Amino acid sequence: MTTIEKKLIKYNFSTGNDPKYIVVHDTGNPGKGADADAHYRYFNGGNRNASAHYFVDDHSIIQTVEDANASWHCGDGKGQYGITNYNSIGIEICINSDGDYNKAVQNAIELVKFLMKKHNIPLDKVVRHYDASRKNCPGTMSSNNWEKWNWFKSQLKEEAAPAAGLYRVRKSWDDAKSQVGAYKVLENAKAECDKNPGYSVFDEKGNKVYPLPFSAPEQPGETQPEQQLTLIMGKTEATVAQMVSYALKSNANPLLPNCTIEELAQVFIEEAEVEGVRADVAWAQALKETGYFKYGGIVLPEQNNYSGIGALNNNSKGEAAVFESPRIGARAQIQHLKAYASTEALKQPCVDPRFHLVKRGSAKYVEWLGYEDNPNGTGWAWPGKGYGYSIVGILKGILQEPKESKEATDTGNVPQWQKDAFKKLVEKKIINSPEFWEGRLGETITIGEVMGILANTL
What we know:
The chain has 13 helices and twelve strands.
């Protein structure tokens, strides 16, 4: 097994964890150089509102959070499936396009085996991020009804071959004459296999155990066909309900002092339609830029700036564009996206203070919004490696939400004093998303949600 390198981050974790599950993710970041160390540096660079215990690539395993502490890797599920940040270990598999995905997966398998033994975690408690929140993660394993994930789980079972059995290195199980070695130790057989292209490792029963029985996922990059990329201009696919639901899964109390999240989503729909920009793309970008409206970076919530316009890398807190209303802030972002995605004139007066700085039509795809991913040598984010791809990942999550809001829970059995208390909290603006909470008066909520509401009273 690859040696675990411990490089603990200073942020983005909580104390206390009782590991009962191992949750497997992939990073969703195919940018060149986005290996384990790059993710360590990112999550150690400030408040990211997310993290994992381990990052695994084709040559290293980096531990960023102690097993005894909680990394922030599956909180989006809010514990409704029994899996939380406080009873699990999160593993992120890197999918950087300049790495060997198959080797990264193999390293992850060995790490999971190690952690299963260390914490006495059974196979049925090794799960996907999907199992904790219904997010499509690890996305590289989700195709064909999770065929690759099922194979991944099969590799965690105890070896079926007897102790005296041998691992044979051949071109195929039936081609015994091609055999170049037989080994008692699987790792030795793998090493021999790596020296012989076109060969595989087979156990005593003829089962192929190495290399992975599937190819690496197609890696987005400079050679990815344009028809597979995501246009910024076009018809919005997501509904307001989907946009709001996905945002609230990661932050039940968005810091939006000048409107509700439902109102803001509707504004995005309206403003984007005017300019022909996809509102769901703009919304996904806003969630990324604001940390799901948690903020914490340069931009302040009261600035109505949802995309970091004018927030340059060396600026101090608050040194970014300020817009007079949520609508104008959304309009500026959508105009800025149109500047990159199209050469068409704006339909409304320009409110984007940096519109004139954009090379028009230089990034018609979301994936090209990062400077280092853009073949035209420009981009919204600098250096921006993987920036657009991460927005696409958020967009995919949005589109998996129900198209309509869930029907409100029957509140007939909720005492009147609780209904009155809810109304008062809304009037005092302690609860700023009443449409979300009103249907949950009869439900239990998490401690984290209570803390979020209490924080609004300070």
